[in-house]
Recover the amino acids of this structure.
């Protein structure tokens, strides 16, 4: 997977949904992430840390793999798994927070 991402741009789409007695609210964040070129040695070292396992795309942007990212357009928190801007917006729309 990391070899496929190396030197390329990929899209990360993260959805959030809020369901309450008074309704449902949904939103998505769309983020473009570009990786620099990754050598086989870099990939092997990263995989050996165990960090790649159990993660979509075989990387966690908030961990050691953040050095792979040469460009990010969109939501950093969305790439981590919970788009905070969109979550806050839904909570406000639902009247949970002011």
């Amino acid at each position: 997977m990391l070899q496929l991402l190396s030197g390329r741009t990929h899209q990360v789409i993260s959805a959030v949904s809020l369901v309450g007695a008074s309704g449902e609210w949904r939103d998505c964040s769309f983020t473009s992430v570009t990786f620099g070129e990754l050598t086989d040695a870099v990939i092997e070292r990263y995989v050996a840390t165990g960090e790649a396992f159990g993660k979509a795309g075989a990387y966690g942007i908030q961990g050691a793999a953040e050095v792979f990212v040469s460009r990010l357009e969109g939501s950093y928190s969305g790439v981590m798994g919970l788009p905070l801007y969109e979550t806050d917006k839904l909570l406000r729309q639902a009247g949970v927070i002011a």
